[in-house]
Design a protein that fits this description.
IGPS catalyzes the conversion of PRFAR and glutamine to IGP, AICAR and glutamate. The HisF subunit catalyzes the cyclization activity that produces IGP and AICAR from PRFAR using the ammonia provided by the HisH subunit. The chain has eleven helices and twelve strands. It is of the alpha/beta class.
């Protein structure tokens, strides 16, 4: 069995790591400054994170490119896999992000606008480099709508249909972000995660809502996630990655230590 992964997520706005709540509904003025992305990345590298994810959370809204400078700085000092996303619209921009030190590129809004970007990226760099990040909001008991532009614009896609389409086009991993749960610390949307994990042939990463160690365990055990992503509880040092890994290992989950 493959080891489950613990992934801190750094949401970057104007060169700083920020946090909000239910990100699709928050205004930029409601975001709180968490710290310097390079320093936080170093901390997580030392704590034993399995990967790091950087999202430029307003790139698609403001039209900015990927945070290549920050990525280069982090890649020089951290020795764990890096994923970067935000404002990546072309195969050439995917190439730039990978050259800057990322192991994987996360596509969201641009993929919704041009699904063939997933296929082109996978053909050029391999499916293992292409992550499809999906922002979803519940619209029924077992139904979720996909949103673009950082959770600001509703799309016609139902979450399962879009995830399956993304994998068909070549995405090698799915990150599922719950707009409803994001920043609430009330737990992941387990139904949403399990729906995708049980129907997709690629790894599914749970995102949005972690508040305590049990939330991570439930996403991995009950919802069948391959990895768990979180931000605030790690940034505020409410949960230490080393302690979380020890807890999950005690529950019998395959964890890298």
């Amino acid at each position: 069995m493959l080891a489950k992964r613990i992934i801190p997520c750094l949401d970057v706005h104007a060169g700083r790591v920020t946090r909000g709540k239910k990100f699709g509904k928050a205004e930029l003025g409601q975001l709180s400054d968490v710290g310097d992305p390079s320093l936080l990345a170093l901390r997580y590298n030392e704590e034993g994170a399995d990967e790091l994810v950087f999202y430029d959370i307003t790139a698609s809204v403001e039209g900015r490119g990927a945070l290549l400078g920050i990525l280069r700085s982090v890649a020089r000092s951290c020795f764990i896999p890096l994923t970067a996303g935000g404002g990546i619209k072309t195969v050439e921009e995917i190439r730039e992000v990978l050259r800057a030190g990322a192991d994987k590129v996360s596509l969201n809004t641009a993929a919704l606008a041009n699904p063939l970007l997933i296929k082109e990226g996978a053909q050029k760099f391999g499916s293992q480099c292409i992550v499809l990040s999906i922002d979803a909001q519940r619209v029924g008991e077992n139904s979720w709508r996909v949103y673009s532009h950082g959770g600001r614009k509703e799309t016609p896609w139902e979450v399962r249909e879009w995830a399956m389409k993304g994998v068909e086009l070549g995405a090698g991993e799915i990150v599922i972000n719950s707009i409803d749960a994001d920043g609430t610390k009330e737990g992941y949307d387990l139904k949403l995660i399990r729906v995708l994990a049980d129907c997709l042939p690629v790894p599914v990463v749970a995102s949005g809502g972690a508040g305590k160690m049990e939330d991570f365990a439930l996403a991995l055990e009950y919802a069948h996630a391959d990895a768990v992503l979180a931000a605030g509880v790690f940034h505020r040092a409410e949960i230490h990655i080393g302690a979380l890994k020890a807890y999950l290992k005690e529950r019998g989950l395959p964890i890298r230590t």
